[in-house]
Amino acid sequence: MSPSSPSLSPAQVVDGQLRAYNAKDIDAFMAFWADDARLYQHPDTLLASGAAEIRARHVLRFQEPNLHGRLLHRVAVGATVVDHEVVTRTFPEGPGTVEVIGIYEVVAGRISRAWFTLGTPLLGEAAPLGQRKPRLSSRETRRPTCARHPLWHQELRHDEKGPRLAGPARYRLCLP
Question: Which positions fall inside the SnoaL-like domain (predicted)?
Answer without folding.
Answer: 17-113
